[in-house]
Design a protein that fits this description.
- The protein is built from 14 helices and 8 strands.
- Helix 1 crosses helix 13 and helix 4 (68-77) runs parallel beside helix 9 (176-182).
- By secondary structure, the chain is mainly alpha-helical.
- The strands form 3 sheets. A 3-stranded parallel beta sheet has the order 1-2-6.
- It has helices at residues 9-26, 45-50, 61-65, 68-77, 88-96, 111-116, 129-153, 159-170, 176-182, 196-204, 220-230, 256-262, 278-288, 290-293; strands at residues 56-58, 83-85, 103-104, 119-122, 125-128, 187-188, 239-242, 272-275.
- Mean pLDDT is 90; it is low at 211-218.
- 47% of the residues lie in helices and 9% in strands.
- It starts with 8 loop residues before the first helix and ends in a 7-residue tail after the last helix.
- The relative contact order is 0.15.
Length: 300
């Protein structure tokens, strides 16, 4: 793996991503000089040694549908990330996998044949219809309880609050949402209704509906994190992994340099984009960064 940096092509980009994530993990406020504009509360050297990078992890639902879910759960379970941003499928597929299996199939299986057998294809993976039936049976009582809290306690159900509740209710250590709830790591999902959870909310709406705020745009997890960092004059560290390219102007394919132009990544940062399949790249990246170099916060 150490040879990636000098291999060329996307291997070099992956090597650069490894270096950038390791810098992200190892940075402390004590690495920066104290200047005339430093907050007086941030001057103490011992305090500065404890201040670390706040790490945002953003991913799309297909990674949770795949076996990368277990790598993401590893990061959340071990408190290696501070904030998670994902799409609706990234929440519901995590929960559904606690209730039923997803199977490896083939990219070229005929859709009509699968439909007749009650199987749904996600790339080359297959999800039985029955899994969604079990999910409906599980989530409806949860939504009943949430509606009760809304009516009696005045709870305002934002997507992140809903996901935290789902993590509490699923009570399964295989789940990303479970560990996010347990470790108090917020999961943000602007388009929470864009999937099976949205269907369940619609079915539940024969009763007075829950009212989660949501928005749906292209490249949601990536853009949500970038836009949040715009409010602090840009991210200090940034790594993208995607097969998307920028020729059509979509946010998903935009290179880090475009985010620099918006102030979403700092001018002095060294952002990296790796072009490729994240189901291959992300486990490799984790193996050379978080799994190898992360120091638990309690030990720092």
């Amino acid at each position: 793996m150490e040879s990636l940096f000098t291999t060329g092509f996307q291997a070099t980009s992956l090597g650069q991503a490894v270096n950038e994530v390791n810098r992200m993990i190892q940075w402390r406020l004590s690495d920066e000089p104290v200047g005339p504009h430093t907050d007086p509360d941030h001057v103490d050297p011992e305090y500065r040694k404890t201040v670390r990078t706040r790490i945002f992890l953003a991913y799309t639902s297909n990674l949770v549908s795949s076996g990368v879910r277990e790598h993401i759960r590893y990061l959340v379970q071990n408190k290696m990330v501070d904030v998670v941003v994902t799409t609706a499928g990234g929440i519901e597929e995590d929960l559904i996998k606690c209730m039923g299996h997803t199977y490896v199939g083939d990219f070229h299986l005929p859709g009509a044949d699968l439909r007749a057998k009650g199987l749904n294809r996600i790339g080359n993976m297959l999800v039985p219809n029955a899994n969604y039936c079990v999910f409906e049976d599980w989530i409806m009582p949860v939504l009943d309880g949430m509606l009760k809290d809304q009516k009696e306690l005045g709870t305002n159900w934002t997507p992140s609050k809903m996901i935290e509740r789902f993590g509490r209710e699923i009570d399964n250590p295989d789940s990303i949402a479970y560990w996010a709830h347990k470790n108090k790591i917020p999961i943000f999902c602007p388009p929470l209704t864009d999937g099976s959870i949205g269907d369940m909310l619609f079915f539940h709406s024969e009763a007075p509906p829950l009212t989660p705020g949501s928005a749906c745009v292209a490249g949601v997890p990536k853009h949500h994190v970038c836009n949040a960092n715009l409010m602090r004059n840009g991210a200090d560290f940034s790594v993208y992994m995607s097969t998307a390219q920028e020729f059509d102007g979509c946010d998903s394919g935009a290179r880090p340099d475009e985010a620099v132009s918006w102030g979403k990544i700092r001018l002095e940062a060294n952002p990296v984009k790796v072009y490729g399949d994240a189901t291959i790249l992300m486990p490799l990246l984790i193996s050379q960064t978080f799994a190898r170099n992360f120091i638990p916060k309690e030990s720092a």
